[in-house]
Amino acid sequence: MWIESMTLQNYRNYDMLEAHFSPTLNIFVGQNAQGKTNFLEAIYFLALTRSHRTRSDKELIQFQKDSLHVSGSLVRTNGKVPLDIHLSKHGRTTKLNHLKQAKLSDYIGNMTVVLFAPEDLQLVKGAPALRRKFIDIDLGQIKQLYLADLSQYNHILKQRNSYLKTAETVDKEYLLVLDEQLIHYGSRVIKHRYQFIKDLSHQADKHHFTISNELEHLSIQYLSSISFTAVDEIEEQFRKQLEASRKRDLFKKNTGVGPHRDDLAFFINELNASFGSQGQQRSLILSLKLAEIDLIKASTKESPILLLDDVMSELDYTRQEKLLQAIKDNNVQTFMTTTSIDHFKDLPQELKLFTIEAGHLLDEKE
């Protein structure tokens, strides 16, 4: 798949902008704070209905404006698909093929993206919430059922936590009802994640082995707060561990076990990657991104759109070469931001170059 064109209105520092893209490589060049990252964010927003940089939707709407509008024409193997998002203080409206979508899970997954940004280098050493977000975004694009199960789990978790905080006297029967619903959807979330991480680890290892000149193996361990040895015992173990945590939950007034406390661990040659070199960690993240492309392509039969936000300068020549070769091999439409293309080597000739200054496309060359 690839984006043929996009229109932005009142999005961050863009008043009104329409752009047409190459199906291969598109490079946005400009100094810092001119709008390069904002444009990539808008592509991400069109795919996932939210920003990767902020949780506050109002930050996306241009200052002193009431709403924003982002639309695009997506080309898939079965034809063109118009996408449309309108965001205002009253809420968000998403349209697919000009038809309003009642559920986000019906919209997300039609346009898939893989984002590689400088903050991804924190995936290895950063907080567990970053790694859970990584799982949710990538698995959510592949599996609509996962998004639905996760949404139900989060809704019940919020109910349970709210009840624990506000109830003067806890009704144990009501708490048991909430617990059963939490166990049902939480177990489904864990099963989805377990299989996804298993597949991701396999694909990422293949890429990392190549990038490291066949010197290093990469493995990813799924650290669930629910201890289990087999998938078919997850629900039973969740129930047991939730019961064991009840005294703690009543005292702390929140839920101590469940997929909201999941984490990941990365290992290079069986050593924890958080203690690895900066170069090893860059190779690890690059391997993850290439593995994401593989899994999305295998699941959807379409190549995702790759967004590279000022990361090529973070990679040495060898890693740049591996990334550009993977883009070419997978026929992935790519959007790249940079302050200069002078330090790049072996860029393909069939690219489109945009110059961005103060929210305007000043130049456009093929």
UniProtKB/TrEMBL annotation:
Alphabetical UniProt keywords = ATP-binding, Cytoplasm, DNA damage, DNA repair, DNA replication, DNA-binding, Nucleotide-binding, SOS response
Q: Does the keyword Kinase apply?
A: no
List residues binding ATP: 30-37
One of the protein's GO biological processes: SOS response
* Residues covered by the RecF/RecN/SMC N-terminal domain: 3-356
Q: Which residues form a coiled coil?
A: none
* Family under the similarity heading: Belongs to the RecF family.
> What's its job?
The RecF protein is involved in DNA metabolism; it is required for DNA replication and normal SOS inducibility. RecF binds preferentially to single-stranded, linear DNA. It also seems to bind ATP.
Q: What is this protein called?
A: DNA replication and repair protein RecF
Species of the source = Streptococcus hyointestinalis
Instruction: Name the gene behind this protein.
Output: recF
